[in-house]
User: What shape does this take?
Amino acid sequence: MTTVYSAVATIHKLPFNDFKHIPTRPEIEVVLGVLPAIELRRLEEGLDLLEPSIVWAMHWYDSERGWGYRASFRERVVCILHFQKGFFTMTLSVPLAREAEFIALRELTEEFRARFSDYKRSINAKWIVFRIRKRRDTEAALALLRLKLDDLRAKTSRRKK
Assistant: This one.
């Protein structure tokens, strides 16, 4: 007797991948758990201190990634957060011309540095996903975001001239 398994049966539903339902903050915090929810708040507040004009919005990506929490600066994406059980991820584009500067940040953990070798490439950048669970991760993420904002400020100020 031969058993046939459907490929669909092995796909696990990720949190917040229902297009018809935008996740609420309480739902996000329940999925994250107490400590990662604290780190989410710390990341938001830290980014606000770096740049008060950051705009946060939920944005639909696709049925695999679902809803992402996107931070924008002058209509440019700063980072995208996706929420999982017990952690969240931050997707960030790192300009190829400044990659060494990002990797050299003293706040980065070895885990964060290792992520620079696992990326999706676009024309001038690497799209890298970082996992955030604890305070050291948040500190590393904020260091990366500080450089990212410097890069975006330079690009958007050139465009205004």
Observations:
- Confidence is low (pLDDT under 50) at residues 1-12.
- Strands lie at 55-62, 66-73, 76-84, 87-95, 119-121, 125-132.
- Residues 14-160 form one domain.
- Helices lie at 25-32, 34-50, 99-103, 110-114, 135-160.
